[in-house]
Amino acid sequence: MVVAWNMPEPSLSDKVTFLLRLEAYADGTTRVDLKETHMSYVFLTDQHAWKLKKPAREEYLDFSTLDARRRNAEREVTLNRRLASDVYEGIVPLAMDPRGGMHLGGHGEVVDWLVKMRRLPEHRMLDHAIAAGDIRTEDVERVASVLASFYQAASVISISASEYRHRLESDVNATADELCRADYGLPRESIEALRAAQLRVLRTEPGLFDERVRQGKVVDAHGDLRPEHICLANHVVIIDCLEFNADFRKLDPASELAFFALECERLGASWVGDQVLAVYEQETGDRPPRQLLDFYKRQHALTRAKIAVWHLKDSGPELRNKWIGKAKDYLLRAGQSISSPTEPPR
C-alpha cells in the first residue's frame, strides 16, 4: 500500500546518497560500488545489483514520472527473464517514512523503484573473459546455442516487407543526419559515403530484406547484444536487454548477430562473433547472405557512433575526445565493409 505523507520529494541526489550507504541494504553488504550509465545508476553490493533509472525524458523514452519508472522496471524484469530467468529477482520500492527517512523495500510513501538482480561474477562476463584470454571454444558454442534457441522461440513481429525496408531507410537517414552535425566535427564525406552505400543496398537489393520478413525473421530480440551483457557461468545468462522501447528490439537475428560480431571485433576477438554465427546457422538452418550481414554491421556501427556523440550532451569537455574518438572508430569499422556499386553481392 502506498501512503502519502506530504513530505518533500527527495531529489535524485538524495536517493543516490542513501543507496550508497551500507545500512540501506537489509540483506547486508560489506561495500557498495556505483556504476553510472546514460540512463541509470547501478549499485553493486556483495550479492546483488540494484538499478535505479534516472528521471530522464528523451524522444525515444520517458522515465520522468514515478509510475513510468515502475512500469519500465516491471517490463525490464519480465523481458530479461527470457535469457536470465534466475538473475532478475524483481522490483523493490524505495520508500520514505513520515520523518523523511528512506528505506529500500520498507513501508511508507514510495518515491522510486529499483530492479533487483543477482550479482554476476565480473571475471566471467564475456568482455572480461576476452580481455583476459580466458575464453574457450566451448564457451562460445554455449552462447551461440542459447541465442539460437532464443531466436527460434522469439515472438515474430507483424510487419510488411515494405514497412521493414522503410524503417531501415528512415534509420539510415536519421542517423547520418545526426552524425553530420557540424558541432561533432566528424568526417562528413565518410558519413555520406556510408549513407549512400546503405541506401544503395536497400534500393537495389530489396529482396534481401523482403525474404527475411517473409521467413518471419524479424522478431522481438534482445536489442543490445554486447559481450559485457553475457555471463559465461555454469549456464549462460544474457542480461540488460533493451526494455524501454519495443521498436528498438524489432530485429532480424542476423542484425543482432552482426552487431555482436562488431563488438567482439572491437575487443580484438573477431573469431567469437564468427563462431557464434556459424553455430547459429548450423542449429537453425538460417544462413543470412553476407551482403545482408555487411549491411546490418554498417548500420549498427553508425548507430553506435551516434550513441557515442550523444554522450557529449551530458559529459564535460574533458571527455569530448573520448566520445569523438569512439564515434570515429565506429565509422572506420563501418567503412571497411562498403562494396563498390559494381561489385557483385558476395
Descriptive account of the structure:
It is a single chain. This protein has two domains: 12-119; 126-335, Aminoglycoside phosphotransferase (APH), C-terminal lobe (Aminoglycoside 3'-phosphotransferase, Chain: A, domain 2, Alpha-Beta Complex), CATH 3.90.1200.10. 46% of the residues lie in helices and 14% in strands. A six-stranded antiparallel β-sheet has the order 1-2-3-8-6-7, sandwiched between helices. It is globular. The chain is built from eleven helices and twelve strands. With 346 residues, it is α+β, with helices and mostly antiparallel strands.
Poorly predicted runs: 1-5, 340-346
Strand order of the largest sheet: 1-2-3-8-6-7
CA radius of gyration is 22 Å
What CATH architecture label of the largest domain applies? Answer: Alpha-Beta Complex
CATH topology of the largest domain: Aminoglycoside 3'-phosphotransferase, Chain: A, domain 2
Secondary-structure-based class equals alpha+beta
Terminal Cα span: 61 Å
Total beta strand runs: 12
CATH class of the largest domain: Alpha Beta
**Shape from CA axes?**
globular
* Count of discrete structural domains: 2
Characterize the main sheet: 6 strands, antiparallel
From N to C, what is the helix and strand string? HEEEEEHEEEHHHHHEEEEHHHH
| Beta content | 5-15%
Helix content: 40-55%
The overall pLDDT, averaged over residues, is: 93
Count of helices? 11
The CATH homologous superfamily name of the largest domain equals Aminoglycoside phosphotransferase (APH), C-terminal lobe
